[in-house]
Amino acid sequence: MVSSLHLRDIAGIGPILEKRLITHFKSEEKALFVLLKGEIRELCLVEGMTKKAAQSLISNVVKSQTGICAGDFLKTKEAESLYLGILKILKKYCHTAYASDYMDLFIPYPKQKSNRREEVSANIQSHMDLIHSFSEDEIELISNLLSQITPARTAAAAKIKDKVILTFTEKTYLSAKEKFGKNLAVHWVLDPQEAADLLSAYPSVILFEFPEFDIPDGYEYFRNFENLTLEQIVPEIALDFFIQNQKSILASLKLAEIMAAGTLGGVYSKMTAEAALSLRTLVSKIDASGNFAAGFDPESDRLNLILKNCEEIFLKSAGTLSSKIEQSLSSSTLTLDGAQMMKVMSGIDLKEIVFEKVSKNCRGFFAESLAEISEKLALKKDEDMLLWDVFGDEISCPVQIQPDVLSRFKKHISSKITERNHSHKKSLSKELAGQKEMCESLITACLESDVWFSVAAFALAHEMTFPKWEERDEKESRGGKEGKSGRENGSGKGDKNLSFSMDAGKNLFLSQKYGLSHVVPVSYATNSVTILSGVNSGGKTSLLELLGQCFILAHMGFPVPAQSFSMSSLDEFYYFGKSKGTLDAGAFETTLRNFAAVFKTKKPEREKAGLTFDKYEKKKAVFADELEAITEPGASAKIIAGLLEAFCADGNALSLFVSHLAEPIMKNCSIPVQVDGIEAKGLDENLNLVVDRNPVKNHIAKSTPELIVEKLFLSASGEDAAFYEKLKAKF
Ligand SMILES: Nc1ncnc2c1ncn2[C@@H]1O[C@H](COP(=O)(O)OP(=O)(O)OP(=O)(O)O)[C@@H](O)[C@H]1O
């Protein structure tokens, strides 16, 4: 936490928002923590906060911390959308919403902040190494565990239903009610009977003073309740945190077990695998209500099973019992002796005689059934005893279950469960006391490691490598500029111009769309003002995009999607995408204004120093894709030629222009311009263009429309073929 930072120091936070943030997050420190961690989702929960507003706040926080924002490097809308496109792919590798939000905090850093890039690179590298040290199965397990983790929450303590506070004077009642009334029932007890009733109604009773009368045992007594906290009188409340965050805690403890021997350091290394395992076993014992989770306490499992199954088992037994009695009766005959006949004659009910006759048999059946029930439910003696009259004390057929016996039995079992859970909660909360902070920091550490783990996974999935930086000698460069342009100095090796060199790069967007193995690797290098010419669909735009991706990622401190990549460190990146057709006068004017902005950097310092080019001049890369579409071809070539001359004169710009107008541009240019080309080699057996995606140096590649005409000619017949043949002859 940056202690000197306050909410009101952040652009965009006025007194109203400051109050809202503090109210929502309960403290300024927590609000700042969320802002600094870039937790957009958390911020969006603040009253009146939209996603856009949250994003802009976070970007202001980054700016206040680092002095820069993404826009300082990404100078055009298209440069920004390249960056956003990269983030979109990157976020697919995140396991947690936390990491996904955090990705927005990775921004390209200009040259003067290169130390920040180094920190980022070091973290990514260590996580790439870490991933390498695990097997595929382990990586899958780690990914799975990370996806189960969400930031730790501590909701306000809920109302506790199984405890009551008894007070015996008005004064104590009023202060206890004020202090604990929100969470516990508080009673002012006046007589022994009321106290006895409450003791039997609640599994747990707390006394805040001794009554003047005797009360039965089974309570807790606190003398100095004025200084008590809720946690002291209801220790099981401490379980709330573990219940609310159980999934995240269990997953992070499992991760700690896996990582304990690893290289992550921090909170992981503070915990041994054994400690993580034993804490995990403790936390696993709780269910969503804080009771014993199934499988952890055989006695609780037995009692819960009784409660769940008893009704069904009793009903089945009653049915079997009825059949047995019926069967026994149907095979019996009743013979009355003289005395019995006399009884009937004197008015005694025949039923009594029948009962007398069959009762011996039936009692045997009843006993058998009760024994069976007891065995099936694994009942204990005290539970057994409650059931002796569950089928009634008189024999009837069909046999009926006595509802009051059944409910007495169930109540007995339920109170045993409650009692057991109560003592479980108490002992568990004692065992877990003091572990809350450890769990909180473990969860945070896991979320943070997901940030780096995800970036590393993204880098490995795209076979990315860290770039090498080519730092040019400022003095030499300046000397060259004030005299001749970089090209005039002589391009190629030894040239001190800004430059890049890429070996086997693969455009991330194409890899994402078609799969890494379907993208043809491209190698390219240049160190001057360059035009990239080439065949239609040859991959010029894709290459420009790929280089843009590499420039942005490299300045973020990330590896780039190439086998090897080196470049000069830059301050600004301008990317002008392909326009969708001839622009109207207004749009044309805006485009030219955008280009003019490229040259405006640090003009005041330049003028003040009386220098044409000073060392504070920003280093920039300027990419433009088929700028010719901005106006008619003749004028476009002149404008592009003018721009290239200006870039060449600037000396601090690495510019690459994709264009089909290489020849007319060269004609209009007063300086020699480097032209490279992506060439089509011909048509394959399926009449598809065969293209070498690697630009050929110093080569004007044709757009090769003749190959398209040839393709049409070869695939047509009759009149159509004759028509295409005539067109073909024009080339
Ligand atoms: N390196 C590559 N590997 C595989 N496919 C590629 C590669 N580069 C380009 N392509 C494929 O070729 C298509 C056309 O590429 P792109 O738009 O970059 O060509 P272009 O030279 O800019 O074309 P145009 O001059 O017509 O604008 C892409 O959509 C992609 O499907």
Automatic annotation (TrEMBL):
Keyword Nucleotide-binding attached: yes
SMART domains: MUTSac
Keyword RNA-binding: no
UniProt GO molecular function: ATP binding; ATP-dependent DNA damage sensor activity; endonuclease activity; hydrolase activity; mismatched DNA binding
Chain segments annotated as transmembrane: none
Top-level division of the source organism's lineage: Archaea
Cofactor(s) needed by this chain: a divalent metal cation
Compositional bias (Basic and acidic residues): 470-487
UniProt keyword list: ATP-binding, DNA-binding, Endonuclease, Hydrolase, Nuclease, Nucleotide-binding
Domain DNA mismatch repair proteins mutS family: 527-728
Positions of region (Disordered): 470-496
Gene Ontology BP annotations: mismatch repair
Family matches, as SUPFAM superfamilies: P-loop containing nucleoside triphosphate hydrolases, RuvA domain 2-like
Residues annotated as binding ATP: G534, V535, N536, S537, G538, G539, K540, T541
Family: Belongs to the DNA mismatch repair MutS family. Archaeal Muts2 subfamily.
HAMAP family (alphabetical): MutS2_archaea
Protein purpose: Has ATPase and non-specific DNA-binding activities.
Protein name (record): DNA-binding protein MutS2
Encoding gene per record: mutS2
